[in-house]
Amino acid sequence: YAGVPERLDFANGPTDNEKAYLEKANEAYIQKYGIRTIDLEEITVTGHKPGKYEESVYYSALSATGLRTAEDIEKMAVSSLKSLLYTQPGIVVRSDKITTSTSQTPVAFIIDNITYEDFFDRLDDIDVSSIDNLFVVKDNSFLPGYFPNTNGAIVITTKMGYEPKPRKSLNIEQIIPLGYQQAAEFYSPVYETPEQKNASAPDLRTTIYWKPNVRFSEDGEATVDFYSADSATTYTVTGEGVSGSGKMIRFSSEIQVKGKDEP
Questions:
Q1: Rounded to two decimals, what is the model's pTM?
Q2: What is the secondary structure of 186-247 as a DSSP string?
Q3: Which CATH number does the domain 64-158 belong to among 2.40.10.10, 1.10.10.10, 2.60.120.10, 2.170.130.10?
Q4: What does the pLDDT look like over 39-50, one tens digit per residue?
């Protein structure tokens, strides 16, 4: 392919070639899309003081302990809900369950007023940054309802609501075929008819030609045909590929292109 620009590194300022490339690229953009200027009116952004955390219906000064708000959690800089629970007063994080410090029975999780009795394997479903507040209920005597398999609860209120993530079946896999794909082809203009050759619109392309399947003869020669842009410049021709024996090939050279009005 020819005229494909290399990565530009302006750490030490653009080179003369890079400046020329950018000028032509900008000129081509303006020629195609024109100059568009939008004047924005002045706006005023007003901030609001964060309100009080949303208090859960399960919260009571008698039954709740270890209340932590979103602000408290942010200051702790914990990465996961389990890490947060390790520091929660009255809670013990065990290898297979979470209990209160006074019981061996797992706690229930009450998330946005919905009770989950078996939640240990789903702790990663909740992002700690989504928690509005969290506290611990000491035992079931302070919980409405009958929960024989749990003792106490961790009550979590989220900022935007909690939706349980679907569990992936280990023996079922969903496969979506790619389907019909239309082949992509690099655009290169053709100037064959008199109308095409005499078109008034200038050709200001910066990427001139690319072909992915150039085949070389046994003598190492290949022929490619393309139309150059209107500007007189130097094209960099770069070839990359793999030989029949699997060796990587890369070469680069330059060709001088004259303008259409030059002899």
A1: 0.47
A2: -------SHHHHT-SS----SS-B--TT----TTS---------SS-EEEEEEEEEE-TTS-
A3: 2.170.130.10
A4: 788 888 887 766
